[in-house]
Amino acid sequence: MTDMNTPNPLRFIRQDIQSMHAYAIQDSAGMVKLDAMENPFSLSPELQAKLGERLGAVAINRYPGARIDDLKQALASYVDLPEGHGLMLGNGSDELISLLAMACDVPGASILAPLPGFVMYAMSAQLQGLAFHGVPLTAGFELDEAAMLAAMRAHRPAITYIAYPNNPTANLWDAAVIRRLIAEAATFGGLVVMDEAYQPFSSKTWLDEIRANPAANANVLLMRTLSKFGLAGVRLGYMLGPQALVHEVDKLRPPYNVSVLNAECALFALEHAGVFAQQAAHIREQRSVLIEALARMPGVTPFPSDANMVLARVPDAQRSFDGLKARGVLVKNVSKMHPSLTNCLRLTVGTPEENAQLIGALPQVL
Known about the structure:
alpha/beta, Aspartate Aminotransferase, domain 1, Aspartate Aminotransferase, domain 2, 7-stranded mixed sheet
Protein backbone atom coordinates (compact mmCIF):
# COMPACT_ATOMS: atom_id res chain seq x y z
CA MET A 1 0.00 0.00 0.00
CA THR A 2 1.09 3.56 -0.66
CA ASP A 3 1.78 5.61 2.45
CA MET A 4 -0.61 8.56 2.25
CA ASN A 5 1.97 10.67 4.06
CA THR A 6 4.66 10.00 1.47
CA PRO A 7 5.05 12.91 -0.97
CA ASN A 8 4.13 12.05 -4.54
CA PRO A 9 7.34 11.54 -6.56
CA LEU A 10 5.61 13.35 -9.46
CA ARG A 11 5.17 16.52 -7.40
CA PHE A 12 8.01 18.35 -9.14
CA ILE A 13 6.98 17.30 -12.66
CA ARG A 14 5.26 20.30 -14.24
CA GLN A 15 1.49 19.96 -14.31
CA ASP A 16 1.25 21.04 -17.95
CA ILE A 17 3.62 18.21 -18.88
CA GLN A 18 1.59 15.68 -16.90
CA SER A 19 -1.48 16.86 -18.84
CA MET A 20 0.20 16.51 -22.23
CA HIS A 21 -0.11 13.62 -24.67
CA ALA A 22 3.17 12.13 -25.80
CA TYR A 23 4.02 12.25 -29.51
CA ALA A 24 2.22 9.22 -30.94
CA ILE A 25 4.01 6.78 -33.24
CA GLN A 26 1.79 4.22 -34.94
CA ASP A 27 2.64 0.52 -34.81
CA SER A 28 3.61 -0.35 -38.37
CA ALA A 29 4.65 -3.98 -38.02
CA GLY A 30 3.66 -5.90 -41.13
CA MET A 31 2.12 -2.82 -42.77
CA VAL A 32 2.78 -0.86 -45.95
CA LYS A 33 4.15 2.15 -44.08
CA LEU A 34 2.89 5.37 -45.66
CA ASP A 35 2.36 7.46 -42.53
CA ALA A 36 5.65 9.23 -41.71
CA MET A 37 7.06 10.81 -44.90
CA GLU A 38 10.05 8.49 -44.99
CA ASN A 39 12.10 7.69 -48.09
CA PRO A 40 10.84 4.16 -48.94
CA PHE A 41 14.03 3.10 -50.71
CA SER A 42 16.80 1.24 -48.87
CA LEU A 43 20.46 1.10 -49.83
CA SER A 44 21.66 -1.47 -52.33
CA PRO A 45 23.41 -4.53 -50.83
CA GLU A 46 26.71 -3.17 -52.17
CA LEU A 47 26.30 0.19 -50.41
CA GLN A 48 25.06 -1.55 -47.27
CA ALA A 49 28.28 -3.55 -47.14
CA LYS A 50 30.43 -0.46 -47.72
CA LEU A 51 28.57 1.48 -45.02
CA GLY A 52 28.95 -1.45 -42.63
CA GLU A 53 32.70 -1.43 -43.14
CA ARG A 54 32.82 2.31 -42.51
CA LEU A 55 30.78 2.11 -39.33
CA GLY A 56 32.77 -0.88 -38.07
CA ALA A 57 35.94 1.21 -38.21
CA VAL A 58 34.51 4.14 -36.23
CA ALA A 59 36.14 4.79 -32.85
CA ILE A 60 32.99 4.37 -30.77
CA ASN A 61 35.09 4.33 -27.60
CA ARG A 62 35.83 8.04 -28.13
CA TYR A 63 33.58 11.07 -27.91
CA PRO A 64 32.72 12.68 -31.26
CA GLY A 65 35.57 14.88 -32.46
CA ALA A 66 36.98 16.13 -35.74
CA ARG A 67 34.66 13.92 -37.80
CA ILE A 68 31.78 16.22 -36.80
CA ASP A 69 33.69 19.14 -38.30
CA ASP A 70 34.20 17.07 -41.46
CA LEU A 71 30.44 16.61 -41.68
CA LYS A 72 29.78 20.32 -41.23
CA GLN A 73 32.24 21.09 -44.03
CA ALA A 74 30.66 18.43 -46.26
CA LEU A 75 27.18 19.89 -45.68
CA ALA A 76 28.46 23.42 -46.27
CA SER A 77 29.85 22.23 -49.60
CA TYR A 78 26.69 20.27 -50.44
CA VAL A 79 24.42 23.32 -49.99
CA ASP A 80 27.01 25.80 -51.31
CA LEU A 81 26.84 27.77 -48.06
CA PRO A 82 26.57 31.51 -48.79
CA GLU A 83 29.43 33.76 -47.73
CA GLY A 84 29.05 35.12 -44.22
CA HIS A 85 26.80 32.24 -43.17
CA GLY A 86 27.39 29.54 -40.59
CA LEU A 87 26.01 26.02 -40.14
CA MET A 88 25.22 23.96 -37.05
CA LEU A 89 24.09 20.38 -36.50
CA GLY A 90 21.16 19.01 -34.55
CA ASN A 91 19.95 15.59 -33.50
CA GLY A 92 17.22 15.92 -36.09
CA SER A 93 15.40 19.19 -36.73
CA ASP A 94 13.45 18.61 -33.52
CA GLU A 95 16.51 19.43 -31.42
CA LEU A 96 17.18 22.59 -33.42
CA ILE A 97 13.59 23.72 -32.83
CA SER A 98 14.03 23.14 -29.08
CA LEU A 99 17.34 25.02 -29.02
CA LEU A 100 15.80 27.98 -30.82
CA ALA A 101 13.02 28.22 -28.24
CA MET A 102 15.61 28.06 -25.47
CA ALA A 103 17.78 30.72 -27.11
CA CYS A 104 14.85 33.12 -27.49
CA ASP A 105 13.35 32.61 -24.03
CA VAL A 106 13.39 36.23 -22.90
CA PRO A 107 10.54 37.87 -20.92
CA GLY A 108 7.47 38.33 -23.11
CA ALA A 109 8.87 36.32 -26.03
CA SER A 110 6.58 34.17 -28.15
CA ILE A 111 6.60 31.90 -31.18
CA LEU A 112 4.26 32.23 -34.15
CA ALA A 113 3.45 29.84 -36.98
CA PRO A 114 0.68 29.14 -39.50
CA LEU A 115 -1.79 26.35 -38.68
CA PRO A 116 -2.07 23.56 -39.53
CA GLY A 117 1.67 23.03 -39.30
CA PHE A 118 4.41 20.95 -37.71
CA VAL A 119 3.39 20.17 -34.13
CA MET A 120 6.89 20.67 -32.69
CA TYR A 121 6.77 24.47 -33.19
CA ALA A 122 3.98 24.78 -30.61
CA MET A 123 5.36 22.04 -28.39
CA SER A 124 8.80 23.65 -28.20
CA ALA A 125 7.16 26.91 -27.14
CA GLN A 126 5.10 25.20 -24.43
CA LEU A 127 8.04 23.22 -23.04
CA GLN A 128 10.12 26.38 -22.82
CA GLY A 129 7.30 28.40 -21.25
CA LEU A 130 6.81 30.65 -24.26
CA ALA A 131 3.47 31.75 -25.67
CA PHE A 132 2.54 30.21 -29.02
CA HIS A 133 0.37 32.02 -31.55
CA GLY A 134 -1.10 29.95 -34.37
CA VAL A 135 -2.50 31.74 -37.42
CA PRO A 136 -4.95 29.69 -39.54
CA LEU A 137 -4.21 29.22 -43.22
CA THR A 138 -6.85 30.09 -45.78
CA ALA A 139 -9.38 27.46 -46.88
CA GLY A 140 -7.02 26.65 -49.75
CA PHE A 141 -4.07 26.19 -47.35
CA GLU A 142 -2.37 29.43 -48.39
CA LEU A 143 -0.81 31.93 -46.00
CA ASP A 144 -3.36 34.46 -44.75
CA GLU A 145 -1.08 37.47 -45.19
CA ALA A 146 -3.34 39.98 -43.45
CA ALA A 147 -3.85 37.71 -40.46
CA MET A 148 -0.14 36.87 -40.26
CA LEU A 149 0.87 40.53 -40.35
CA ALA A 150 -1.77 41.45 -37.76
CA ALA A 151 -0.55 38.68 -35.43
CA MET A 152 3.09 39.67 -35.91
CA ARG A 153 2.31 43.32 -35.13
CA ALA A 154 0.24 42.38 -32.10
CA HIS A 155 2.66 39.85 -30.58
CA ARG A 156 6.08 40.75 -32.05
CA PRO A 157 7.16 37.08 -31.93
CA ALA A 158 10.78 36.16 -31.33
CA ILE A 159 10.44 33.39 -33.93
CA THR A 160 8.08 33.02 -36.89
CA TYR A 161 8.17 29.59 -38.51
CA ILE A 162 7.53 29.22 -42.24
CA ALA A 163 7.61 25.62 -43.47
CA TYR A 164 8.60 25.54 -47.14
CA PRO A 165 6.81 23.28 -48.15
CA ASN A 166 4.40 22.87 -45.26
CA ASN A 167 3.50 19.77 -43.27
CA PRO A 168 0.84 18.34 -43.49
CA THR A 169 -0.53 20.36 -46.43
CA ALA A 170 2.59 19.70 -48.60
CA ASN A 171 2.35 22.99 -50.51
CA LEU A 172 4.75 25.88 -51.09
CA TRP A 173 3.52 29.35 -50.18
CA ASP A 174 3.72 32.57 -52.22
CA ALA A 175 7.31 33.85 -52.11
CA ALA A 176 6.20 37.48 -52.32
CA VAL A 177 4.06 37.04 -49.19
CA ILE A 178 6.95 35.37 -47.36
CA ARG A 179 9.26 38.27 -48.30
CA ARG A 180 6.82 40.72 -46.74
CA LEU A 181 6.54 38.62 -43.57
CA ILE A 182 10.33 38.50 -43.26
CA ALA A 183 10.48 42.27 -43.70
CA GLU A 184 7.81 42.73 -41.01
CA ALA A 185 9.72 40.54 -38.55
CA ALA A 186 12.85 42.57 -39.21
CA THR A 187 11.12 45.76 -38.01
CA PHE A 188 11.11 44.44 -34.43
CA GLY A 189 14.17 42.15 -34.57
CA GLY A 190 12.20 38.91 -34.93
CA LEU A 191 13.70 35.78 -36.46
CA VAL A 192 12.07 33.93 -39.33
CA VAL A 193 12.91 30.23 -39.56
CA MET A 194 12.41 28.68 -42.99
CA ASP A 195 11.90 24.96 -42.40
CA GLU A 196 12.90 23.04 -45.54
CA ALA A 197 12.50 19.50 -44.23
CA TYR A 198 11.06 18.38 -47.58
CA GLN A 199 13.55 20.20 -49.82
CA PRO A 200 14.64 17.09 -51.82
CA PHE A 201 11.15 16.94 -53.33
CA SER A 202 10.49 20.67 -53.70
CA SER A 203 10.62 22.78 -56.84
CA LYS A 204 12.04 25.74 -54.88
CA THR A 205 14.37 26.54 -52.00
CA TRP A 206 14.60 29.73 -49.94
CA LEU A 207 18.37 29.41 -50.14
CA ASP A 208 18.14 30.96 -53.61
CA GLU A 209 16.41 33.98 -52.04
CA ILE A 210 19.11 34.22 -49.37
CA ARG A 211 21.85 34.17 -52.02
CA ALA A 212 20.06 36.71 -54.22
CA ASN A 213 19.31 39.17 -51.42
CA PRO A 214 21.24 38.45 -48.20
CA ALA A 215 20.43 41.86 -46.69
CA ALA A 216 16.68 41.21 -46.88
CA ASN A 217 17.24 37.82 -45.21
CA ALA A 218 19.57 38.94 -42.43
CA ASN A 219 17.01 37.77 -39.85
CA VAL A 220 16.39 34.40 -41.54
CA LEU A 221 17.56 30.97 -40.40
CA LEU A 222 17.07 27.96 -42.70
CA MET A 223 16.60 24.43 -41.36
CA ARG A 224 16.95 21.18 -43.23
CA THR A 225 17.10 17.53 -42.27
CA LEU A 226 18.64 14.39 -43.71
CA SER A 227 15.52 12.47 -42.63
CA LYS A 228 13.66 13.07 -45.89
CA PHE A 229 16.93 12.84 -47.84
CA GLY A 230 16.82 9.16 -46.90
CA LEU A 231 18.29 8.94 -43.40
CA ALA A 232 15.27 9.19 -41.09
CA GLY A 233 16.83 6.61 -38.77
CA VAL A 234 20.07 8.58 -38.46
CA ARG A 235 18.49 11.67 -36.80
CA LEU A 236 20.49 14.51 -38.27
CA GLY A 237 19.28 18.02 -38.93
CA TYR A 238 21.20 21.16 -39.76
CA MET A 239 20.55 24.87 -39.67
CA LEU A 240 22.25 27.68 -41.54
CA GLY A 241 22.04 31.44 -41.34
CA PRO A 242 24.08 34.58 -40.75
CA GLN A 243 27.21 33.59 -38.83
CA ALA A 244 26.47 35.80 -35.82
CA LEU A 245 22.99 34.27 -35.34
CA VAL A 246 24.10 30.66 -35.75
CA HIS A 247 27.03 31.26 -33.37
CA GLU A 248 24.68 32.27 -30.55
CA VAL A 249 22.25 29.36 -31.00
CA ASP A 250 25.15 26.91 -31.30
CA LYS A 251 26.22 27.78 -27.75
CA LEU A 252 23.14 25.90 -26.49
CA ARG A 253 23.90 22.71 -28.38
CA PRO A 254 25.00 19.82 -26.16
CA PRO A 255 28.70 19.23 -26.89
CA TYR A 256 28.21 15.70 -28.23
CA ASN A 257 24.69 15.92 -29.64
CA VAL A 258 25.56 14.11 -32.90
CA SER A 259 27.09 10.66 -32.52
CA VAL A 260 30.09 9.48 -34.52
CA LEU A 261 27.89 6.78 -36.08
CA ASN A 262 25.30 9.35 -37.19
CA ALA A 263 28.03 11.58 -38.57
CA GLU A 264 29.68 8.75 -40.50
CA CYS A 265 26.31 7.67 -41.97
CA ALA A 266 25.66 11.24 -43.08
CA LEU A 267 29.12 11.63 -44.62
CA PHE A 268 28.64 8.33 -46.46
CA ALA A 269 25.26 9.51 -47.78
CA LEU A 270 26.69 12.81 -48.99
CA GLU A 271 29.48 10.93 -50.80
CA HIS A 272 26.72 9.01 -52.60
CA ALA A 273 24.38 11.98 -53.02
CA GLY A 274 23.63 10.95 -56.59
CA VAL A 275 21.97 7.75 -55.37
CA PHE A 276 19.68 9.70 -53.04
CA ALA A 277 18.95 12.31 -55.72
CA GLN A 278 17.82 9.48 -58.01
CA GLN A 279 15.56 8.14 -55.26
CA ALA A 280 14.06 11.62 -54.78
CA ALA A 281 13.40 11.83 -58.53
CA HIS A 282 11.56 8.48 -58.39
CA ILE A 283 9.48 9.76 -55.45
CA ARG A 284 8.57 12.94 -57.36
CA GLU A 285 7.48 10.82 -60.34
CA GLN A 286 5.42 8.56 -58.10
CA ARG A 287 3.85 11.62 -56.45
CA SER A 288 2.38 12.60 -59.81
CA VAL A 289 1.10 9.06 -60.36
CA LEU A 290 -0.53 9.07 -56.92
CA ILE A 291 -2.15 12.50 -57.32
CA GLU A 292 -3.55 11.59 -60.74
CA ALA A 293 -4.99 8.32 -59.39
CA LEU A 294 -6.55 10.06 -56.38
CA ALA A 295 -8.11 12.72 -58.60
CA ARG A 296 -9.95 10.00 -60.55
CA MET A 297 -11.55 8.55 -57.40
CA PRO A 298 -15.10 9.78 -56.72
CA GLY A 299 -15.27 11.92 -53.60
CA VAL A 300 -11.50 12.28 -53.22
CA THR A 301 -9.75 15.66 -53.49
CA PRO A 302 -5.94 15.57 -53.57
CA PHE A 303 -4.13 18.86 -52.94
CA PRO A 304 -0.99 20.10 -54.76
CA SER A 305 2.26 18.80 -53.29
CA ASP A 306 5.92 19.83 -53.35
CA ALA A 307 6.83 17.22 -50.71
CA ASN A 308 6.95 13.42 -50.48
CA MET A 309 3.37 13.31 -49.20
CA VAL A 310 -0.07 14.08 -50.56
CA LEU A 311 -2.91 15.56 -48.54
CA ALA A 312 -6.26 14.20 -49.68
CA ARG A 313 -9.79 14.94 -48.52
CA VAL A 314 -12.10 11.91 -48.49
CA PRO A 315 -15.79 11.51 -47.57
CA ASP A 316 -15.00 9.93 -44.17
CA ALA A 317 -11.38 10.07 -42.98
CA GLN A 318 -11.77 7.70 -40.02
CA ARG A 319 -13.60 5.09 -42.07
CA SER A 320 -11.00 5.29 -44.85
CA PHE A 321 -8.10 5.15 -42.36
CA ASP A 322 -9.55 2.11 -40.60
CA GLY A 323 -10.34 0.39 -43.89
CA LEU A 324 -6.84 0.94 -45.26
CA LYS A 325 -5.29 -0.28 -42.04
CA ALA A 326 -7.40 -3.44 -42.16
CA ARG A 327 -5.97 -4.00 -45.65
CA GLY A 328 -2.39 -3.57 -44.44
CA VAL A 329 -1.83 0.03 -45.55
CA LEU A 330 -0.93 2.54 -42.83
CA VAL A 331 -1.47 6.26 -43.53
CA LYS A 332 -1.91 9.29 -41.27
CA ASN A 333 -5.37 10.50 -40.28
CA VAL A 334 -4.87 14.26 -39.82
CA SER A 335 -8.59 15.09 -39.84
CA LYS A 336 -8.63 16.12 -36.17
CA MET A 337 -5.42 18.16 -36.19
CA HIS A 338 -7.18 21.35 -37.29
CA PRO A 339 -10.69 22.29 -38.48
CA SER A 340 -9.40 23.01 -41.99
CA LEU A 341 -8.22 19.39 -42.24
CA THR A 342 -11.66 17.85 -41.75
CA ASN A 343 -11.80 14.42 -43.41
CA CYS A 344 -8.20 14.68 -44.64
CA LEU A 345 -5.63 11.90 -44.84
CA ARG A 346 -1.91 12.45 -45.31
CA LEU A 347 -0.41 9.86 -47.64
CA THR A 348 3.33 9.33 -47.87
CA VAL A 349 4.57 8.68 -51.40
CA GLY A 350 6.03 5.17 -51.37
CA THR A 351 7.58 2.81 -53.89
CA PRO A 352 5.61 2.03 -57.06
CA GLU A 353 4.46 -1.24 -55.47
CA GLU A 354 3.38 0.45 -52.22
CA ASN A 355 1.54 3.20 -54.07
CA ALA A 356 -0.21 0.60 -56.20
CA GLN A 357 -1.45 -1.13 -53.03
CA LEU A 358 -2.74 2.17 -51.69
CA ILE A 359 -4.42 3.09 -55.00
CA GLY A 360 -6.01 -0.37 -55.14
CA ALA A 361 -7.23 -0.37 -51.55
CA LEU A 362 -8.57 3.17 -51.18
CA PRO A 363 -11.59 2.88 -53.54
CA GLN A 364 -12.71 -0.19 -51.57
CA VAL A 365 -12.95 1.76 -48.31
CA LEU A 366 -14.39 5.09 -49.47
